[in-house]
Write a structure and sequence with these properties.
Blueprint (H helix, E strand, L loop, with lengths): L7 H30 L6 H22 L5 H20 L5 H29 L1
Helix pairs in contact: 1-2, 1-4, 2-3, 3-4
């Protein structure tokens, strides 16, 4: 999903799209697919992680959209939660779309976080 040499605004736009997509897919999978399948799919830990991932992705997109100075820190947390959610979903059949959305979002968030860290380091030199 990430394209090398993007400008800061392009990276942010890609990340916002990835976060919004992940939010939509995790929420839909939790409320529609996992609850309908029940059993392992509706385990408390798995459902909690899907919903937390969805909420954090929405919040991360919102912070980026409003130009919050804390958006890069939130992106770092978002990447970690998306990685955990992708791992949980990968253990269940039929969750491939969720795994891909989480992996794309985590990757995009890491690129935003890395780029901001590099920009800050350049300013300090």
């Amino acid at each position: 999903m990430y394209i090398e040499n993007n400008t800061s605004s392009e990276r942010t736009a890609v990340c916002i799209d990835a976060c919004e997509n992940c939010h939509r897919i995790c929420l839909a999978m939790a409320m529609n697919y996992c609850l309908a399948r029940s059993g392992r799919y509706a385990r408390q830990e798995h459902m909690r992680l899907l919903l937390q991932c969805a909420q954090l992705c929405r919040l991360s997109a919102d912070y980026q959209l409003t130009g919050s100075p804390f958006s890069d820190e939130l992106c770092a947390v978002c990447a970690a939660v998306c990685d955990a959610c992708a791992n949980s979903c990968s253990m269940l059949d039929g969750m491939d779309e969720c795994v891909q959305a989480c992996e794309d979002c985590a990757d995009s968030c890491r690129h935003v976080t890395f780029a901001v860290s590099e920009e800050r380091a350049c300013l300090l030199q």
